[in-house]
Amino acid sequence: MASQDLDSPWPSSSVESFDCSFNIRMEEGNLADSISFLEVPTTSVSHNCNIPKPPPLPAKIYSRTNYPRMLAECCCVPMETKDTWDKLFKEGYGADVYIITEEKAIIPAHSIILSVASPVLGNFLQQSKVKNGIKYIKIPGVPYEAVCAFVRYLYSSCYEEEEMKKFVLHLLVLSHSYSIPSLKRICVHLLEHGWLTLENVIDVLQLARNCDAPRLSLICVCMVVRDFKTISATEGWKAMKRANPALEQELLESVVEADSRKEERLKKIEEKKVYMQLHEAMEALLHICKDGCRTIGPRDKMLKGSQVACSFPACKGLETLVRHFSSCKTRVPGGCTHCKRMWQLLELHSRMCNEPDYCKVPLCRHFKEKMQQQSKKDEAKWKLLVSKVLVAKNWLGPFSSRRSGFL
Fold it and tell me: Which of the four pLDDT bands, split at 50, 70 and 90, describes residue 18?
């Protein structure tokens, strides 16, 4: 809280000095609606307001990940060649390897192709025993159709979209387990760009962590945080909760942290709005006291009338506040809320004014002299408020309605 509680009434001479400074044309209006935005903030504020702008996004570069993809786009492999490799896989001509799946089904393949495509499969083939001129390797835990799609990709780098969509999670595991980076990139890309759903996000998250796909894992966590209520009711979440309670705890902490950051961000936005409104009020006060506005201004200035538009956003509310202040019968600091607010605005201006001897705002010099008598605690509060209002001025920058001379 940067405002000040003033317990003793101001001298009548100060009040009369304020009244004599203005030519006021009385108009009817709702005081509470007009000046509610001029409240001095009461919440505690952070000192870290001058947060630097983030650096610009980096220019497009070809990293180790997308460089091979760029080369692949430059290569031209005739469709006939791909069809030949597909035919070799489907017919199994001259096959010397049998791949045994979970259902005990057999997929014929060629050891030389498997060894070149996957160093992991090559090691398996070297260690496997030959029986009747055929080597046998097992790929358990994966449906037969998924193994077929995987082996076909090793031959021709081709896949059917329907098969990929159906078995993308199985193919992600196979590509990681048997070291097929190109297939792994395809699976990750498809999941990141449209194939990630509320139902499968938990399964994908666990696979992404096991398969060393950090970006996909981060996208899954963000999706959980964004729609936690729906995802926490899915079967995937319930299964994860039973099998991996540590991951559940981690996700819950991420959700809580995200909510806290959101609340803090909203709080800072609201505080920023308050300080910007105070800055606009300071500009409007100087405008009224120096140039005059529609229904209020210096006695040596001609009033413009209520039909003339004013470019200062806070001017209308401040006019209403000044009109109330000049006619209020209580007018005791601490007795009338609106008058107290006017005293605070006048003191805030005085603390920001660099030319009190020439300033046309009433009581500016009086408040300057009164500062010498304040306690260090009150002085620190006012200095903090002034610094926040000055920061708000910097936020407005060249788009401010007026570059005030006293700031």
Answer: low
Task: Tell me the CATH number of domain 85-178, given options 3.30.710.10, 3.40.47.10, 3.30.70.370, 3.40.50.720.
Answer: 3.30.710.10
**Residue 107: strand, helix, or coil:** strand
Phi-psi bin for 92: left (phi > 0), alpha (psi -120 to 50), beta? left
CA gap 222, 182 in Å, rounded: 25
Tell me the average pLDDT across 25-42: 50
Phi, psi (rounded to 5 degrees) for 89: -70, -45
Alpha helices in 138-200 (DSSP H): 144-156, 161-177, 181-190
Per-residue pLDDT reduced to its tens digit, 361-390: 777 877 777 777 778 888 888 888 888 888
Handedness of CA 392, 395, 401, 402 (dihedral sign): positive
CA 20 to chain CA centroid, Å, is 51
pLDDT of residue 130: 87
What is the CATH architecture of 12-38+266-399?
A: Up-down Bundle (1.20)
The pLDDT, as a whole number, for residue 212 is 92
Three-state SS at 251: helix
